[in-house]
Amino acid sequence: MPKPVMVNMSATRTTRRILVETKNLTKDPPPGISAVPNETNCRYFHVVMAGPKGSPYEGGLFKLEMFLPENYPLSPPSVRFLTKIYHPNIDKLGRICLDILKDQWSPALQMRTVLLSIQALLSAPNPDDPLANDVAVMWKSNEAKAILTAGQWTREYAIND
Description:
By secondary structure, the chain is α+β, with helices and mostly antiparallel strands. 35% of the residues lie in helices and 14% in strands.
């Protein structure tokens, strides 16, 4: 008599959710954001994000990577900038300081929400909760110079990248 096959229903639901979210991202992408799953791993996404209008990142195209952990959506995605950026909430390694990627994560949130929140962070840096302390100090002491530097970095690293 054959042994019963054990199916992990939680993993099946998670995969189904990832597939549905991926389909929605492809069918109706957030404005200025492209998120394409890797051909060999449906949990890894190549993201391109346009710098928001009116921000020092305007005109730039920023590459990011997003990875959904095994227990997604119970845990938040891991997202990192691959394009160099001058921002108080993004460090030299591209890691992002954003509450919904840490302690404010909820399984009700989706990849789309995360990407839109990161794009909003580009419009509204928060130097009071920094990941790049040197950038935050500049942002607080001389905001005009920090914005100028962010624009220079955008032109240098995020245009024609």
